[in-house]
């Protein structure tokens, strides 16, 4: 009996271990590499890397919202609307046959491109505009949740629906091509062997880690997620903290939009349409709790790494597209169950550091 109890305790320890998902990712990759030798090829590793960095920025933003006990379903719509608005500013030319019915034709758009087509400040202005829009949408979400006390699921579902439709309305479902090379290089270029996308994701992770581990705001974020009533009594400005979390999520979604748009060389009104489950799944798989108050930046990295490797391996298998979705859905469900188990186990184990 004592031997069985010892085994159960060891298993529980592994489930609660910080590096459990990292070990699982490495083991899974090695197994898939054995079955599909191309998994370890240079081209495939580069593909895994390019898919990881934009998703990581999204998951880090989602983590902040999950930490305060919320959820942000609008990240993909923020990606879509910022992708097309930024592209409209800097595109170098447009096909009149496709865009002459656009509501902005003749005002912002023309046959010779966007409002700042060819201008030296076109790319910086477009990027600043994109980040501003993303932050504003995050601000709307945060104020609705914190000040109006509306359910986060409902608020972000509405903003997701509205801005997804708005992005399609602005472009009439057309992709905006012919973006400046100085913008495209953000998604495809790099400094030596290090891609710019990796640098942006790394800086985002460092900023998130600094906020959560070295700033008062980080302690407030964990406090709000663990017990909001206690946080209020302790003097934590809960409303401001929640708003800040949603604004940060909006900025991270915009950063991902910049990376994806630059890599795809187009502003797309449907950008990120199928990424929401990947974002939530990677966050939960990494160990970031859906119940709030528990999450770390490295957990986000581990979850993204596992999900990208899983997705990459599924694409190599002779599976129909619906089978891939079924498997990914099952993995996310198991991750949610694992999250519940972790919470139950952590309540019976000595307190662990949140950050």
Task: Give the topology.
Elements: H1 2-16, H2 20-35, H3 42-67, H4 75-90, H5 96-99, H6 122-146, H7 152-171, H8 181-188, E1 190-191, E2 194-195, H9 196-214, H10 216-226, H11 228-233, H12 238-264, H13 276-286, H14 297-316, H15 321-348
Antiparallel strand pairs: 1-2
Helix pairs in contact: 2-14, 3-9, 3-12, 3-13, 3-14, 4-6, 4-7, 4-12, 6-7, 6-12, 8-12, 9-10, 10-12, 13-14, 13-15
Explain this structure to me?
Helix content is 71%, strand content 1%. By secondary structure, the protein is mainly α. The chain has a domain at 56-282. The protein has a two-stranded antiparallel sheet. β1 and β2 (194-195) form a beta hairpin. α3 packs parallel to α9 and α4 (75-90) runs antiparallel to α6 (122-146). The longest helix has 28 residues, at 321-348. Mean pLDDT is 90; it is low at 350-355.
Structure in a nutshell:
This protein has 355 residues and is mostly helical. The protein has helices at 2-16, 20-35, 42-67, 75-90, 96-99, 122-146, 152-171, 181-188, 196-214, 216-226, 228-233, 238-264, 276-286, 297-316, 321-348, and strands at residues 190-191, 194-195. The radius of gyration is 21 Å and the shape is globular.
Task: Report the mean per-residue pLDDT as an integer.
Answer: 90
Number of strands: 2
Give the DSSP E fraction (strand runs of 2 or more residues). under 5%
Q: What gap, in angstroms, lies between the N and C termini?
A: 36 Å
Helix content: over 70%
What structural class do helix, strand and pairing data support? Answer: mainly alpha
The run of helices and strands is HHHHHHHHEEHHHHHHH
Radius of gyration, in angstroms, nearest whole number:
21 Å
Largest sheet: 2 strands, antiparallel
Low-confidence stretches: 350-355
Instruction: Please tell me what the overall shape is.
Output: globular
For the largest beta sheet, what order do the strands appear in spatially?
1-2
Q: How many H/I helical runs? A: 15
